[in-house]
User: Fold these one by one.
Assistant:
Number 1:
Amino acid sequence: MKMNKNITRRYALGALVAPISFFPSSILAFSKSDAEGLIKNLTVDVLSAINEQKSEELMFSKFEMIFSKYADVPLIARKALGPKWREASKPQRTAYVSAFRGYMARYYGKRFEDFLGSKIIVLNSRKTSGGFLVNSDIVLTDGSSFQAQWHVIDARGKFLMYNLFLEGVSVLSDVRVQIGSMLDKRGGSIDKLTAYLNTAA
Amino acid sequence: MQFKSENLIKAILLISFGFIFTACTQSDPNGFYDPLEKINRKTHSFNKSLDKILLRPASKVYGVVVSDFADILINNFTNNLSEPSNAANHLLQGKLKKSSNSTARFLVNTTIGIGGITDPASRLGISSSESDFGKTLHAWGFNEGAYVELPFYAASTVRDTTGIVVDFVMDPINSIIPSKYKPHTQGAKLIELAGDRNEYGEIIDNMLYKNEDSYASQRLYYLQRRRFDLNNNTISDDDLGNPYEDE
């Protein structure tokens, strides 16, 4: 309905903020096996970061590196902030995304710590509009398992992780709830949010 | 598992009551329909303090006192008690195979499984699958309805709350087990509550005490987890959202 308007705005935004720009493509530049391969590599790196059992700080910085490599962090940061993104100035956006990188690493790091010694088995994937949803099982040391589904998207011609669903719960939605609440508590100030995000976990 | 006519009338009344509620509400599949948020948040802080002073300490005691082995026995016992209800609900949803599995599990585990404390049915390859009247209502096409946080019971929806009431009133186990054993079975369920709280200790602690907004987190976890379960563990394109869409 508002398709054209949206596309215009999207391209305008893309031109404005070069690193965060992205282009919707109708033809996917990557295949099922690319998406599954990405998640296989990502989970291998994640598990090795957890199992190394070095300090928490080191683990978090490893996570930050992993996400920079495998995930579309700027887009996730933007989606987590919601409509407020449009109000932010360019320097505010840059500072926010940079703070979000650390926050996301600590957020996932804290939740993945429980997976010490577990196995992640990539099962299969299905095509979605603009990407793939990769199915996996996380098998914990006590034998219990739960389902993790990874949403891989075409990000500016590169395929990157966008979201993770744990037993159906969207991690991005959860992060969005947390960020929204942090923002509310700070009177809607992005600068205060960014300052807080640098330390929040 | 016979339904007495009196129980049937109760169920019909409850279903029509539930229908009135769910029919009035519109539920957005992506978002949350939470018109009662103000009251829900009050209930949430009540539940949270209840968890702090009662359930959380009880679960810590459970973790120390109850051995892993006893934990499995208690788990088996309470799971077995819910099999007749599972069977009835599967049947109401037209899932005949699952219904007969639940019935077979109950028969095998209650007898060979020593009153349900062990689970030989699983070893015989009779797989378990839980169900409840909330799922039955979903299968019959009822809407989710508004999100509600129930005192003592935590997260739910209008549809699931109707389900809880119907399951409670209609539970076939009530006509199977002699009423003199009722305190024992109810007691086991209460102990199991502490056991579950202990098992999911860290996840619940994180949600209630570490998250920025524990109410919103709980609502999200409950609704998305429940929808995932109702959709046979699949994530729809709606759930994925559109990463390329502007907000």
Number 2:
Amino acid sequence: MLDETVSRSPPSTARSTSGAYRLLQGRFRLEVRQQLPVWQRVGITAGAILFGLVICGLILVTAGVSASNLVEEFIIQILFDPQNLRAVLFQAAPLILVGLGASLAFRARFWNLGIEGQMIWGGIAAAATSIYHIGPDRLRLGLMTAAAILAAMLWVAIPASLKLTYRVNEIISTLLLNYIASYFLFHLLYGPWKDPGDSFPHSSQFATVERLPDIGPHLNIALPLAISLVALAWWLLHVSRAGLHLKFIHANASMAQVLGVPIKTATFMAVLLSGALSGLSGLVIVSGMEGRLTLGFYEGYGFSGILIAFLARNDPISATIVAFLVAMLFIAGQSLQIFYQIPFSMVELIQAIIVMCVAASEFFVRHRLHWHS
Amino acid sequence: MTAALELRGIRKSFGDFLVLNDADFTVEIGSVHALLGENGAGKSSLMNVAAGLYCPDAGSVNIDGVEIRLSGPRDAKAHRIGMVHQNFKLVKRFTVAENVLLANPRPSTRVGLTEIEALIRRHAETLGFEIDPRRQVSTLSVAEQQRAEIIKVLIAGARFLILDEPSAVLTDHEAERLLTTVREIAQAGAAVVLVTHKLSEVMRFADRVTVMRGGRTLAMLEPKSTSREDLTMLTVGTTIVAPRRSSRPARGSPRISVTGLECARDGRSMLAGTGFFVHSEEIYGIAGVGGNGQGELVEALMGVRLANAGTVAIRHEDGRTIDVTHASPAMRRDLGFAVIPADREALGLAGSLSVAENFAIGQIHDGRYGSWARVNRTKMRDDTATAVDAFDIHGVRSTLQRASLLSGGNAQKLVLAREFSRNPSIVIAHSPTRGLDVRACAAVHERVLAARAAGAAVLLISEDLDEILGLCDRVGVMTRGRIVAEFEAPIDRQMVGRAMVDHA
């Protein structure tokens, strides 16, 4: 009885595999890698970055930078010109901070896309402390720092508690809170906090005691501060018990819950720290670089922070290295802007291309190609 | 000569690991051919070669003596080879008919769907299946999904039907029904390969059996003229004695008591007044068809699901009674709870972390591995190495190796090592041997019995009646979120089975 049903409907002989695919298939074989030594992984990532840089170079050449100037602008100028080197060291501190901040949040599987919003609140709180002359001069800078950290933590506490109590998707909440923060900043700068001196939309200049002090010819205090926070983050993630908890939350949250890992507390703390670092980064820019609250002081840092965390695989020390590279890119971008009228968004384009190349290189981390002769 | 699918001298390796080593296998039309072996013997790998999923490094696949080349499942389908995988390949949000259509494309989706629906109904009728082609797959039970898979493969025109561990997800009764149907399919002019590690299925339903061990095919036999003992010897290499429960120890006082537990999921009541108690030095089994609230009960006992009503209370070592209904998982662990969850990948281990980390996380809160400021990794690794030896966990080259590299049985032993090193007073084990081979099963059972001997109250929730009957001192039958009947050892299998069916 079943013979008929079994032999019914002739087998399909159609092949959907395209000719090109089969041609390739004949030439090499794809294998899944079991594991990969660290140096090979680093090599693949470096190769991807290099590949991305070549693409970026081609784009810059089409945009009007001559190929010979490319090396000059990106390498010689940046590394051997003391002025530029100072700028890179200046630029690195806030980037390290946002990179660390993003890494911490990502380790807890919290997609903090609100770094810029938290930076804005850090800047606003620091500026408020300056504008309203809160506390004695001696303590002013300390109070500004504390205010910046606190305000940013409060701002990130909103999406964090929404996620942990009502499971509100933090990707959306953190992103949208950025707009609220930036429009509030616009309101302040076009309104009550507008500089009475020149009527431009920025706050009046901070007093000297309200600015981050220099500790050397090429250095202000922000960089050593950022580096010591890197060490602290390294301890937190790799030595402390909380770091092990975060590892389990990242690897398998439901298993961690069953085993009694305090998921909510650990996640909440990691996210608060992430916000605190973003807020501190806002302070470093406002008080260390700009010297006043400006309109777009935070622009590009949110994306850069995510990029740094991604390329560094959420590791504090790698994040520091990547942050220095991004700082070089920032400075090079500024000079491109000045000398070639290339918009600063080119820097973001370069970043994006490199991210895509590294993300795509993950394929070669997981697979191996075997060539047939 | 009868038509046959023949695999000759198949060799396949992944990296340095040789999974198939010169494996031979032949199945003829009209017969059910069992492929027997322990986990990791290479059964599924060999069948994946036949289904075109793996490309062998050496060897040939022949149909009726003619060598064929399979570069993908599409080729296998063209040669009328169909495989029903252990993890079903169905789109959950599609209906049964849509899934079948996806695998058997028609020029017009709309017309094709009507045609497919009719085909499904016809097949279902001849096979004695009840299946509604318009039901969404996610609303089907596991057994129903399996039927959909079989029909899907048959509609594709399969003459060689490969079933990978088909009874693993089924109850006794369902498995019986399925295997009877499978015999009919074979008799109607198909060749059926039954991949299994269950001897009883081979003895009852297979015409022939090929035994595999360590990537090799050892022998092809006729079950009728072979003894169970011989087959076991071939499969395992040595004879394994299943651990036996000692006679009932002096019964302690109730250690944990659950009363009137109520729980709902997605608005559906899953626990409706569940109540039972477990003594110290006792194994209490909960038998029943899966999906009757077992999962929710375990979650409520682990502390990850909130009960709407009812209480869970335990008697502490110092004699106090403590209400733990709302206690967090961490508090429960402090009070001596140990959990062996059914879903090892999801709840038992973090596969991307190291063996040492997976082991130590169980005791990190006691301060055994350093204070909050510093985790003592050396001690973590030393303890893990000791436990790896004590619990006979194989495949651990380094305690820093990722846990996901362990095979099923060894991964489960790692879970056992973590949970039992703490000398728990209350053990909650949910299907602790699901998907494990004979050897690993025996190891798990031994540990459960040892925990009982050490004075723990053990709650064993399982759909495997043999396991329940072999280990438990008392058994409760769970149906629709309630314990509907209780039995004391010695337990009559028939009576438990009847209780499961009567109250359904």
